[in-house]
Design a protein that fits this description.
Order of helices and strands: HEEEHEHEHEHHEHHHEHEEEHEHHHHHH
Shape: globular
Helix content: 40-55%
Strand content: 5-15%
Distance between the termini: 43 Å
Number of helices: 17
Oligomer: single chain
Strand order of the largest sheet: 1-2-4-3-5-6-11-12
Length: 450
């Protein structure tokens, strides 16, 4: 609104104020209709019903919610909802959320999400969509979980991976960098560790406070922003929807928060591309599927350098694309500008990597415990093994080795050549290269030119 409002602006402002007073707000906060198709401990998988008169076609998209944040991030309000955008286009759309975290969930660690929650959700979507490849779209910590699962479970039918605002190098986050030296002084025995252990996690009030502190400047300037935009219905509706989102945070389970705090924040583990989960180390270089990475140009929680740090770590990916889009941490995903920027790129990306039906492979995760169990038993069982005739074991051992050798020769012959070629192209030609983009992505193209 102008400093000296025009008559039209005055009328619009008066109408917005009257509508707010009479109906309690301007935003259409009705959620998109959905159906629960799978659930488990802190796992709820929903399928969004097709829009009226629209037939679902193509590969499904699975939206991965971060911990502590509500699934409203993907369905903020009507006319500004990524879910609505996908559904009205006929894209099969699914959502993974976690429900309410309570004190009884305090013993759950990161491995619960990496080993069970997200893999089971992918499997459920794969089956529900008649065996098609699943395109993961993860925001913030949801993107981190998606990266870890894609690296750890190459057997899953993942068609592509999209991560938005997921900081990999925490040292490049201004909100965290100044306090990291202080956190390392306590070596895990500080007040923060004792507090989250006593509380069984991070309760909702503390999560709300953390998100509010991260956007303190916007909170302080909000009254002025409202006054100067009284005539802008869309702007005011967006503020209402964001306020509802901020008041709907959930808690962090104690052990999960502890792992993220010590390994991710203090240890900055992912900056080198590896992170310990359970009894194994997951390497992001193991990701083979195409990866699309978004960074918001005004994101204070996950600034551009912290997000871009993941690009060189994805050396095994078939293609990596990095895009800088307008908006802060939430705005880049579901802000008003995202309608013509972020969402359009996601549409192009999913269409590019849609391959139809994808068969489910044998899960390698089940074989790892068997090897560990055998290794543990060899020491105490030496006497028993010595008594047995070596001839009985030698024959199957040779056959097994022969089978493995033949399998190794047969498999790479078909797949190795195209993936190596794609990986070389990704680093030089495809990362962020899109000169026809209508919004500012010069930083992305500059990255590809290096």
């Amino acid at each position: 609104m102008d400093l000296i409002p025009t008559p039209d602006q005055v009328v619009s402002a008066a109408g917005n104020v009257a509508h707010t007073l009479l109906y309690g707000g301007l935003a259409d906060l009705r959620p998109m209709p959905r159906t629960l198709i799978d659930d488990g401990e802190l796992r709820e998988v929903y399928h969004y019903r097709p829009a009226k008169g629209v037939v679902e076609t193509g590969d499904p998209v699975l939206l991965v919610t971060p911990l502590a944040a509500p699934a409203l991030c993907f369905d903020l309000r009507r006319d500004c909802s990524l879910v609505e955008h996908l559904v009205t286009q006929g894209r099969p759309t699914y959502l993974l959320e976690y429900g309410q975290v309570s004190f009884k969930n305090r013993a759950l660690g990161v491995e619960h999400w990496v080993d069970e929650v997200l893999p089971e959700a992918i499997r459920a979507v794969h089956e529900h969509s008649s065996g098609r490849g699943v395109h993961l779209v993860g925001w913030s910590l949801g993107g981190i979980f998606a990266l870890l699962v894609a690296a750890d479970r190459t057997d899953l039918p993942i068609a592509s991976l999209t991560v938005l605002g997921s900081p990999v190098d925490v040292t490049k986050v201004p909100l965290v960098a100044p306090v990291r030296p202080l956190l390392n002084l306590t070596q895990g025995r500080g007040a923060i560790t004792r507090a989250y252990r006593a509380l069984g996690g991070v309760p909702v009030p503390l999560v709300n406070w953390a998100f509010t502190a991260a956007s303190a400047q916007k909170v302080v300037t909000k009254p002025l922003a409202v006054l100067t935009h009284l005539d802008d219905t869309d702007f005011l509706a967006q503020l209402e929807a964001v306020s509802r989102f901020m008041s709907s945070m959930t808690a962090y389970p104690g052990r999960t928060f502890g792992q993220l705090y010590h390994r991710f924040v203090k240890g900055n583990a992912l900056a080198k591309g590896q992170m310990e989960v359970g009894e194994r180390t997951i390497d992001l270089a193991a990701i083979t599927v195409p990866v699309l990475v978004f960074a918001g140009n005004t994101d204070g929680i996950a600034p551009l350098p912290a997000v871009r740090a993941v690009v060189p770590l994805l050396s095994g990916s078939e293609q990596v694309r990095f895009e800088v889009v307008p908006g802060g941490h939430l705005g880049m995903l579901t802000g008003r500008a995202a309608r013509g920027t972020t969402w359009q790129v996601i549409d192009e990306w999913v269409a590019q990597w849609s391959r139809g039906e994808v068969a489910m492979k044998a899960a390698p995760a089940k074989k790892a415990p068997a090897k560990k169990a055998a290794a543990k038993k060899t020491a105490p069982a030496k006497r028993a093994a010595a008594k047995k005739a070596p001839a009985k074991k030698a024959a199957p051992a040779k056959k097994a080795a022969a089978k493995k050798a033949s399998a190794k020769k047969a498999a790479p012959a078909k797949k190795a050549a195209p993936r190596k070629t794609a990986a070389k192209k990704a680093t030089a030609e495809t990362i962020g290269s899109n000169p026809t983009r209508r919004y500012g992505s010069a930083g992305s193209r500059a990255l590809g030119a290096r």
